[in-house]
Amino acid sequence: MSKNKALIITDGTKPIRSVALLIKDALSNGYKVKICSAKKFAVTDLLPADIFFIGCKRAKPKSFAGLDEFFAHVNLASRRCGIFSINEKSLKYLKSMLADSEANLGEPLLVSEDEVEKSASNINKWIKNLF
Predict the structure, then answer these.
(1) Where are the domains of the chain?
(2) Per-residue pLDDT in tens (0 to 9) along the chain, 131 residues
(3) What distance, in Å, lies between the first and last C-alpha atoms of the chain?
(4) CATH topology of domain 4-130
């Protein structure tokens, strides 16, 4: 039996990468997880994904310019998506970036930059709520 697939797209910053690794750990039992930076994102990474996650440290990072354009022109109504960040402005930005795609967004995850390493249990609960 093949595993479900999950994709995590990040801005490549250290705190966001750390959260992405915690998400990967939380999904490890039922999902094959790929983490990629927005710079290396390819549409073919998203196509097979059953669920995807997007995180950035700051709103509108330069590396997300292509993502902004992509999500404005694709319909992902059947896909679940989790957005995460270490600040509120970034979460608002990610939510607006994904609005036209109609991806099924769950509650956004806000992680304190100082508490990233201690956030595993909160991330596990957050992921359960996405399903």
Answers:
(1) 4-130
(2) 458 999 999 999 999 999 999 999 999 888 999 999 999 988 888 988 999 999 999 999 999 988 888 888 888 888 899 999 999 999 999 999 999 899 999 899 998 877 776 778 888 888 888 77
(3) 20
(4) Rossmann fold (3.40.50)
